[in-house]
Design a protein that fits this description.
Strand order of the largest sheet: 10-9-8-11-12
CATH class of the largest domain: Alpha Beta
Mean pLDDT: 88
CATH topology of the largest domain: Rossmann fold
Number of strands: 12
Radius of gyration: 20 Å
Largest sheet: 5 strands, antiparallel
Strand content: 15-25%
Shape: globular
Distance between the termini: 27 Å
Length: about 325
């Protein structure tokens, strides 16, 4: 790939700022070692953020942001206005994936199985929670509607725990999802555009793969490849592709699923800007598919430029696209 000026956009103001900074610096180091001119951009808020983007000279923006005002289409929209190519999904797909309720509606529309849920809002439903919950049953998982990294996620086995979890989750926004808890193995599938890279199984030491389990060393075991019969793996990978397609994602993304003992699969969510430290899940999956960390970062950048080249002829000489993973049968 030709030498580029790459702005690595990181930080932001969400609850995942620390995770974003780790992702950003890891990506910036890898791209700099590959010979690119890298500008590290720690994004602020409001007009300051827009001015920072506008005055940063870059051929392409590598989005290392996580959470609200970074992963939800807001920064993507700003970059569209500035005419700067960027990695990851476009404005609409980013917004849909970040909104767990809208994502579930699209999953159902496209016959992608996902756990049933209902919404609780700060405006009024919380005071009628017992009536709203009705015969929905237990256990359930409570999660903020528009948040990432499992922030505010909790499991509830009875109404008292449900009420406490809903009130805590409302600290992250005005809307909460109460989702039926599906017991099974958590499998996460990595994709790069329309190709599957592979799947990893995560086994947290606690019941939920929450923020603590994700970012505390020793709190989670990882199995790559996932401990799923080969006869079932192809269906799981295909389901991940269908989930990403339902939202219209592009670039690198990660689809989180749960697989039951009876081998029923359910899509939990799609992450359009997954963590990108060398020890994050997507790079682990990609490494098993033949991508070292630096090559993966460059491949993500190339796809951002290739996407822009479809509408901007000036970018059609951006360089050759880095080869994707081996064919599906070999990658898994």
């Amino acid at each position: 790939m030709r030498q580029l000026s790459i702005g690595v956009i990181m930080g932001g103001t969400s609850g995942e700022r620390g995770v974003s900074l780790r992702t950003g610096h890891a990506v910036a180091d890898a791209l700099a070692e590959a010979g690119h001119d890298v500008v590290r951009v720690d994004l602020g808020v409001g007009p300051e953020a827009m001015m920072t983007l506008a005055r940063t000279e870059m051929d392409v923006a590598f989005l290392a942001l996580h959470g609200r005002l970074g992963e939800d289409g807001c920064v993507q929209g700003a970059l569209e206005l500035l005419g700067i190519p960027y990695t990851g999904s476009d404005v609409l797909a980013s917004a849909l994936a970040m909104d767990k309720l809208k994502a579930k509606e699209l999953f159902r529309l496209h016959n992608v199985p996902t756990p049933p849920c209902y919404e609780v809002t700060r405006a009024g439903a919380v005071r009628d929670l017992a009536e709203v919950h009705g015969s929905f049953g237990y256990p359930v998982v409570v999660k903020p509607r528009r948040e990432g990294s499992s922030l505010g996620v909790a499991k509830a086995d009875d109404f008292m725990a449900l009420d406490a979890a809903v009130r805590a989750a409302l600290g992250f926004g005005d809307s909460v999802l109460v989702e039926r808890y599906i017991r099974g193995s958590e499998v996460q599938v990595g994709l790069l555009d329309d190709r599957v890279l592979g799947a990893i199984e995560v086994v947290p030491k606690k019941e939920l793969y929450d923020y603590e389990a994700k970012y505390t060393p020793g709190m989670t075991e990882y199995f790559l490849p996932a401990r799923v019969p080969a006869t079932r793996m192809r269906g799981i990978l295909h389901l991940a592709e269908r989930a990403a397609a339902a939202l219209g994602t592009r670039g690198a993304c990660r689809v989180d699923l749960v697989v039951t003992e009876r081998m029923n699969e359910y899509v939990l969510e799609v992450n359009t800007l997954p963590g990108m430290t060398p020890t994050s899940l997507l790079p682990k999956i990609a490494a098993a598919a033949g991508f070292d960390f630096s090559t993966l970062c460059e491949a993500i950048v190339e796809r951002a430029l290739a996407q822009r080249a479809t509408t901007d002829p000036a970018l059609r000489t951006a360089g050759a696209v880095v080869p994707l993973a081996p064919p599906l049968a070999e990658a898994v």
